[in-house]
Design brief:
CATH topology of the largest domain: Alkaline Phosphatase, subunit A
Structural class: alpha/beta
CATH class of the largest domain: Alpha Beta
Helix content: 25-40%
Number of helices: 14
Strand order of the largest sheet: 10-9-11-1-12-13-2-14
Mean pLDDT: 94
Largest sheet: 8 strands, mixed
Number of strands: 14
């Protein structure tokens, strides 16, 4: 059997424009990609892949001859966070949002947490991660209490100064919180947020760790692993899926290391999926409304695309997508309800294939399962493989139909 590899890279939070229901989420007008492009278009490789040819994308310059296939993806899940987005990509959409706590967590949760960890709690409000350690860091050093906070996402975040509370104690507290937060309080992620420094110069460290809610159903990753295929996780994918369906986990400290590890994976002999999350777009730039930082990070990724393309084997596919938006130009510092891009490249991928707007992120997972021979009847999502590959009879028919229609319109 020939080796087949799929490299699926998630540009965490690179939304491409508000969805029709954005108003319900307070995200009217959000467009993460347009916000970044307002500083200038210096992304020639994303342009070549067809990013600016995607339906509804009005920023940037369209490519006359895109080198890959492309689509706009609609989210059917109720939510706009990383967990929900990644689960839907992996063929597990959610029909209800994970719980959020705009007024803080209920006393029953905090009392159980304090009792089981032996430390009290500070804050218990939605807060910026950098602001919360600035405002409560001194008190934590004095009292030894946990700094517990949340955001607009379904998260229970615990900040702890590494010199006051050992990192392993923080991780253990997160595990206890994860066991407490079940049922109606089953948040998507419990997040360890260690930091260092002295007031007012506290800073978070790279020892963050997510303790995620286990997926409530079968995912693409489960199907691949069950069929004996490899599933490599680079970055926080391992955390998002609570380790399930992963055969090899490769942690990273940010985008730059994520790209380095992906470059190394291009030379690995495996048969299956390499699933990558580049988290800095979201955590360092989107959530901090740092448009310039976001732009620079996207430029770093764009510069890396030739390395990706050069490393693909004859049977390899490269897919680039996102999980939600996080527009750095809106007053909010939270995620935004947006469409996301899907770019597909490889030696056998049709150049310039416009898939239009697809109804669910799960089409990504369904296509991967189909390509790797691991499809399961009844899984959400529709495989688009026949439309993407050059050697597909159905795909050729669709492409000819598309060319005829465009010629008629032109």
């Amino acid at each position: 059997m020939n080796r087949k590899r799929v490299f699926l890279i998630i540009l965490d939070s690179l939304g491409i424009g508000e969805m029709p229901d954005a108003e319900e989420y307070g995200d009217t007008g959000s467009n993460t990609l347009a916000a970044i492009l307002s500083l200038g278009n210096a992304f020639p490789n994303l342009q070549k892949l067809g990013l600016f040819n995607i339906e509804g994308v009005s920023c940037g310059s369209s490519e006359m001859h895109p080198i890959g296939a492309y689509a706009r993806m609609k989210e059917v899940s109720k939510g706009k966070d990383s967990t929900i987005g990644h689960w839907e990509i992996a063929c597990l959409p959610s029909d209800r949002p994970l719980p959020t706590y705009p007024n803080g967590f209920p006393s029953s949760v905090l009392e159980a947490f304090a009792d089981q960890t032996g430390r009290g709690v500070l804050c218990n409000m939605p807060y910026s991660g950098t602001d919360v350690i600035r405002d409560y860091g001194e008190e934590q050093l004095r009292t030894g209490k946990w700094i517990v906070y949340t955001s607009a996402d379904s998260v229970f975040q615990i900040a702890a100064h590494e010199e006051k509370i050992p990192i392993e104690e923080l991780y253990d507290a997160c595990r206890k919180a994860r066991r407490i937060l079940t049922g109606e309080n089953a948040v998507g992620r419990v997040i360890a947020r260690p930091y260092i420094g002295k007031y007012p110069h506290f800073e978070r460290t790279a020892k963050r760790h997510d303790f995620s809610l286990e997926p409530p159903g079968v995912t693409m990753l489960d199907c691949l692993k069950e069929r004996g295929l490899d599933v490599l996780s680079i970055g926080k994918i391992q955390d998002i899926f609570a380790g399930r369906g992963i055969t090899k986990a490769i942690p990273t400290a940010g985008n730059t290391e994520g790209l380095q590890k992906t470059a190394e994976a291009l030379h690995m002999d495996f048969n299956g999926l390499c699933f990558v999350n580049l988290v800095d777009f979201d955590t360092l730039y989107g959530h901090r409304n740092d448009r310039a930082g976001y732009w620079a990070a996207l430029k770093e990724f764009d510069d890396f695309i030739p390395v990706l393309l050069a490393g693909l084997g004859e049977e390899d596919l490269l897919m680039i997508a996102a999980d939600h938006g996080c527009d750095p130009l809106t007053p909010s510092t939270d995620h935004s309800r947006e469409y996301v891009p899907w770019l597909i490249a490889g030696q056998n991928v049709k150049k310039g294939m416009d898939l239009g707007t697809l109804p669910t992120f799960s089409d990504i997972g369904a296509t991967i399962l189909d390509y790797l021979g691991a499809s399961v009847p009844g899984m959400p999502g529709t495989s688009r493989l026949s439309s993407i590959l050059e050697n597909s009879k159905a795909g050729k028919a669709l492409l000819q139909e598309d060319k005829t229609e465009r010629k008629r319109e032109g």
